[in-house]
Amino acid sequence: MFAFCRALKEEKFAARRAVLPVLQAEEDERFVKEWKKYLEYEAEAMKDVPGWKVGENLYNSGRWMPPATGELRPEVW
Fold this sequence. Notes:
There is one protein chain. The chain has one helix at residues 2-45. The longest helix has 44 residues, at 2-45. With 77 residues, it is mainly alpha-helical. The chain is built from 1 helix and no strands.
C-alpha cells in the first residue's frame, strides 16, 4: 500500500516538473507583452517631460528586479 502511494506521489511530482517549464514560458511571454504595453503607456504619459528616458531605471541599484505582483496589470492603469 505504501509503495503504491509513494509511486503515485513520485508520478505527481514528475508531472509537475515536466509542466513547469511550459508554465514559466507562458508567464514570461505574458510579462514581455505587458512590459511593452507599459513602455508605450509611459512614453505617451511622459512625452512632455524634458529629459525623460522611457524604460530607464529610476533606482540605481545595478540589479534587475522583477516588478511586484500586479504592477503590470492593464486594468489597474
